[in-house]
Amino acid sequence: MLLDYDRMGWLKIALLGFTALVAGFLLLPVVFIVLLSFGSSHWLAFPPPGWTLKWYQELFADPAWLDAALTSARIATMTAILSVVIGLLASFALVRGRFAGREILRGVLLTPMVLPVVVFAIAIYAFFLRLGLGGTTIGFVIAHTVLALPFAIIPIATALEGFDKSIEDAAIVCGASPLEARLRITLPSIRIGIFSAAIFSFLASWDEVVVAIFMASPSLQTLPVKIWGSLRSDLSPVIAAASSLLVGLTLALMVVTALLQRKVRT
Amino acid sequence: MTQPFLSIRNLRKAFGSITAVHDVTLEIPKGEFLTFLGPSGSGKSTTLYAIAGFQDPSSGDVELEGKSLLAVPSHQRNIGMVFQRYTLFPHLTVAENVAFPLRVRRRPEAEVKKKVADMLALVRLESFAARLPGALSGGQQQRVALARALAYDPPILLMDEPLSALDKKLREEIQGEIRRIHRETGVTILYVTHDQEEALHLSDRIALFRDGRVEQTGSGEDLYLRPATDFVAGFIGNSNFLAAEHLDTKDGTATIRLADGSVVSGVRANGTFGKGQKAKLMIRPEAFGMERSPASAELNVEIVDVAFYGERRRIVARTSGGEGVDIRPTSAAMQSQDLAPCSRQVFFDPTAAFLFPA
Amino acid sequence: MSVETRQSLPTFRMPAGFNGLLPALVLIVLFFVVPVMALLLRSVTEPEPGLQNYAALLGDGTYARVFFNTFLVASVVTIVTILVAFPVAWMLAIMPSALASIVFGVIILSMWTNLLTRTYAWMVLLQRTGVINRTLMAAGISDQPLPLINNLTGITIGMVYIMLPFMILPLVGTLRAIDPMTLRAAALCGASPFQAFRRILLPLSLPGIAAGGLMVFVMSLGYFVTPALLGGTSNMMLAEMIAQMIQSLLNWGLGSAAAFILLVVTMALYALQLRLVGARRMSGGA
Fold first, then answer.
1. A4 touches chain B (CB under 8 A)
2. In principle, which of A86, A171, B174, C268 could form an S-S bond with A185, CB 3.0–4.6 Å?
3. Number of folded domains in chain C?
4. Do B149 and B81 touch, CB atoms closer than 8 A?
5. Domain B4-233 has CATH 1.10.1740.10
6. What is the ipTM of this complex?
7. What's the pLDDT tens digit per position in C154-171?
């Protein structure tokens, strides 16, 4: 009866209470940071003595923050596009292909996800120093694409596995060319997977700290590097303002994802 | 009837606005094999779950030897149960599964060993003791489930459609096992099924459920030969229903007029009918014969099709009013050439025909 | 479908099943495998050829402390994460879907929020003058600020926070795959709720706990950002040490050797995890 929600009595109350506590724990930093960003205390007193927008004004007044945000957005967008395209091609091969060592190759492509980022960060840092790619946009995009690729392949391959190939074959029998059948039938059918891949690989780059810390140069800083640098000097409420905007972005992405999924279901 | 062992009193169970069980009252003597038979959604499983303690009834009571079970949590009810799906513990071996109820009762290890051996012998799976459930066939898994449910000598064994996931041959084989085990152990069994053949084959008594109520309780023969309602007649065995008009009733036997105008006397009336009241006449397919006998009534039909079923033939026929009639005389009773599509008379014993309200 | 169409289908396939993998493989080999191998090479060639870097790392008490710390933190984080995640996953597996989707929403929000943002929030929350210490003192639970940051407590809170979603989400899947009827059967067999939990529910969720726990452990071993910001100097973990060796000390030989040790341990545990998940898949099919 331990899996009968309606028959668990006091145990259910206790477990639900615990779940609520954990949900509160998960929500606490996110909510806290947003409240703090509107607080007037420079020393982050909570509850704040008053409410203000001055941290946001300070944030927008400092071109370094905007610069870092734009750099991050540019790199993350390029990473997402590259990861989705490469991931799409790879997923078709991994799901549909019938060649020896397919499972091993899948494992190899997913390895960057499990390898500690620090190891990859110093490896690629050293490598790019030699190639002269350190501190360049292209260097960032390449390194982030390596890290983001698993997050693109997993949702696309999963969607593709759930897609009945005979539908694509039917389109071909109807006279579509194989490429046309893929573009017009298969891709639209797995669009949720592709969309998830885009979001995940965008976030993988946008949030990436470790490689960025090693690769960044004074002239090319991503947002996480900028936050990292500020964090190490002081805990200024400007970081809270920047962080709140990031939370806003996350919420927006979640809402878009939820709406898209609902649209697909109905 | 012996002193009631298990009683179900005015049991009612509502889920929100839907009432699954309206009002069920049953008395079950010790050692009986009682089957809850009925279509899905008739409340038979809900009643069983209330006995098991998986659901609290909205009102009513379940008593074992005069004591209410309702306040007793499932794990203290000491009831055995075999489920529709295989609910063996997948991480335990067959022997450990059977030992489980004994181990949680902290019985001494020597007793557990002996009991497990006895139980596996009872279901004839001694050589499978060390296997995991996943390595067993469906039928074997249900036999292990039976051994597990009986290992702690529960006074009552509940079985919730235990054979529905098995194929026909296996089902018949395990039905035999269940009958044997009931005989050997004397355990009181409450058995839920929607399969009337299974119910007739296994049970001492059948409670026929319909829409959350017990429509009729009795032996298989009672239900088959003396159905209380047209629903019982329709659910147990095969039956033909012909539209009829009631003319007169005397001493429980009625005279009626069928749609084609023919008048039949001596059919059994279930309930009271007014003169001219619309009714329906139920006749079992095997109650029909092709030869006239002194007491028989006749029916004009057109024969549409004939099929050979081994010991019986099945004749698909139609009355002049267009009502389908299913006729199953024994094969020996006629030659097949007699049955070429044609119009002819068939005969039935009016005392084997029942009149129900329309 | 007729035999004829079935035979003609292979010609409809993309030119070759393998070609699509080429861009991904080129990327991974050129910018992942080669750099990592070059790093390995550096660990045995700098400052001079030989294994002296590994000897130094494994023979020195200071480094041994870092290794010990890394395993300690990863173990504590894993155990706490499992203990916190299990009840939540249990409820999520059986609660009404409207309620569950709210909890899932909270989990996703926390998971998708920028890592530095979350860590920053904990830095502010846990500091000496932070909300948590003030609340504890106001409530009279303690009369002076507790050291919650720059120590094991700080790392554990911050890391458990980050790892919880990775434990909860797969565990919900494991628990949902268990037939509730099995637990009903256990109850009717006479098992008290505690016995049913210990003998049935827990063993049946063990594969999920083991797989998820191993994943959390592996991820914690190599974590850099959160320990660096919430931990103290006495709790330095391997990833931070590697970063320091390269960035501040410019000791590439030692740093690469330490990185390679981290890589080998991680990959070995990852292989173990794959075997566990594979085994679960097989038993789940029955």
1. yes
2. A171
3. 1
4. yes
5. no
6. 0.88
7. 999 999 999 999 999 999
